[in-house]
Amino acid sequence: MFVFGDLLISIATILDYILGLYKWVVIIAALISWVNPDPYNPIVRFLYAVTEPVFRPIRRLIGHRLGPIDISPIVVILVIIFLQSFLVRTAIKIGQQFGGG
């Protein structure tokens, strides 16, 4: 069963890296939105393409804006932190129980 444990730990570690990277993408997208960026810039288009599908349902759920501040990036970051601290760490502990690591 150690193979399953190692596989679960590896998947959890990769998920942790992906979530960490996406957290930085969300932070950068939020910072760039403050400066009125050029919408035709490829970096701005990429950031918009990868964050807007996640922001849109949150904006619908809590309202588009809370005053002049868009809090959807904050909600996304909090969800990512929760997933990293609960889901990933739980998967690693389960993988260790199966003899992985």
Automatic annotation (TrEMBL):
Protein origin, superkingdom: Bacteria
Coiled-coil regions listed in the entry: none
Keywords assigned by UniProt, alphabetized: Membrane, Transmembrane, Transmembrane helix
InterPro entries reported in the protein's UniProt record: CCB3/YggT
GO CC list: membrane
Pfam families listed in its UniProt record: CCB3_YggT
TM helices/strands, residue ranges: 7-35, 71-92
Key word Nucleus present: no
Protein family per UniProt: Belongs to the YggT family.
Name listed for the protein in its UniProt record: YggT family protein
